[in-house]
Amino acid sequence: MRPKACIFDLDGVIVDTAKYHYLAWKRLAKELGFEFTEKDNERLKGVSRMASLEILLSVGGIQIDDASVKEQLADKKNTWYVEYISQMTKDEILPGVEDFLKMLKENGIKIAIGSASKNTMTILNRIGIKDIFDAIIDGTKITKAKPDPEVFLKAAQELNVRPEECCVFEDAVAGIEAAKAAGMKVIGVGDPSILKGADKVIQSFVGQGIELIEF
Ligand code: BG6
Ligand code: MG
């Protein structure tokens, strides 16, 4: 079976923005007086901004009950993150991604973005590939974060295809769970020992052909 549509997560699948998220969270942790390691950062992948802050605070053993203080901290992190991504260039599209997207279009497959990030449009504009997508569902259009399937179900709806006709590309465990909960096929991008729930796992898009999405 070949899906009619592919839905791509953005951070860690199309671009390696995980490093910028990490830099900004690490900077916030430092201000709060503790170290935040790369291993801790794994837990934030695919997770919404506020949920990420909760994890960061628990790593630092810090309890904050005031919601407005939490908002301020998340805003601070986001301001630094936006500074980093505002310098991004087309070169930061991960290897093989653009060719793979073009190949899908040539084969009549619809393509969409399904991301938790509220900075999706800023990134897509920076790297200049916004127009290739038939639909873009991002953090500004959803109310429930991954592993809830909302983001992918909305993308399918906008593409006018049924969930079972979609294949999702994800680098995060929460995203794989979301795709499964949506009733979609899912291809993990990254380490197979972490992305266990995926139907297939690839290390990169380089050299991948249409057979990748045949199940
Ligand atoms: C996801 C990232 O794509 O978006 C997470 O993997 C991030 O690390 C989340 O927290 C929300 O992003 P933003 O840009 O809205 O803070
Ligand atoms: Mg991701």
TrEMBL record:
Broad EC category: isomerase
InterPro entries attached to this UniProt entry: B-phosphoglucomutase_hydrolase, Beta-PGM, Beta-PGM-like, HAD-like_sf, HAD-SF_hydro_IA, HAD_sf, PGP-like_dom2
Pfam families noted in UniProt: Hydrolase
Top-level taxon of origin: Bacteria
EC assignment: 5.4.2.6
Cofactor names: Mg(2+)
Matching Gene3D superfamilies: HAD superfamily/HAD-like (3.40.50.1000), Putative phosphatase, domain 2 (1.10.150.240)
Classification via CDD domains: HAD_BPGM
UniProt catalytic activity: beta-D-glucose 1-phosphate = beta-D-glucose 6-phosphate
Coiled-coil segments: none
Keywords: Carbohydrate metabolism, Isomerase, Magnesium, Metal-binding, Phosphoprotein
Transmembrane segments: none
Protein family: Belongs to the HAD-like hydrolase superfamily. CbbY/CbbZ/Gph/YieH family.
Name of the protein in its database record: Beta-phosphoglucomutase
Species this protein is from: Fervidobacterium changbaicum
Source taxonomy: Bacteria, Thermotogati, Thermotogota, Thermotogae, Thermotogales
